[in-house]
Amino acid sequence: MASAFRLSASAALLIVTLGAQPRDPDGTILRREAYEPPPFEEADGIGPYASPDEYAAARNDRRFVFERIVYSSDGLPVVAYTYVPRASDGAVPTVVFNRGSYTRGEIGHQLLPLFHRLAEQGFATLAPMYRGSAGARGLDEMGGAEIHDLLATTALARGLKFVDLDNLFLYGESRGGMMTFLAIRHGYPARAAATFGGFTDLEQLMSAAPQRYAPLVRQIWPDFEARRAEILLSRSALRWPEALTIPLLLMHGGADRDVDPSQTLALAQALQRLGRRYELVIYDGDNHVLTAHRRERDAQAAAWFKAHLRR
Question: How many CB atoms are closer than 10 A to CB 154?
Fold first, then answer.
């Protein structure tokens, strides 16, 4: 009896001890390693983002360092990519890039051409992949708790010597546009932001293609009907344009079949009514990620960020 009691007490003590283990603060670097993009013939999904020559030039440019970082957010290990000038001996202006789509695998090679274009304009890049992607644990709620993974990059940036904390900028593609708007709403310390192909009205997006989005809705939000109003409101910047208080560059393809350009036009109109600083660029005939204008797209974003640098 006494032996059984001692075993039970020991087990209880073990549970208490394990439960008391502190988790890493948000933004703690857990692992950091060089990232080597594959050659073009082995790299999937590059077509919309770069030609073979563009990709090879970026991959072979040794002026810059490409790394994969694992950092903590809400106690989860989350992946981010960084791209920075190799010869930098101090902090440089940094773009926090928010990728598109839902959960993704290792897509650093797809982002490389964009990173390279920004780097040639004098910007480092930090790109969080969010929980559930690039092999990380956790559930991507498409504008839910994974916003913490983006907000935690401010703490992560403080541990990265190359980041100029006075010159942080946000840049978002598609779903990443929504994440950019959410980060601004949550007070992310960016001086300016740019988006392309971003959606601003989740309800309109889903109603325009119900067969496409219905399975995804069930996967991401199994309780969607019970939380419908809250989910649609929190992920639709068009419902809260007054929260977008920093200068915004809004870009969209006139022939975008994934997100109607009217979504960006509607947000621009709301910002106009509020007297906010913004610019609107519609590339006539181009697609969701502005494939035909990818160099102009990133040049526009870099120019916008330069116009809002803290000197």
Answer: 19
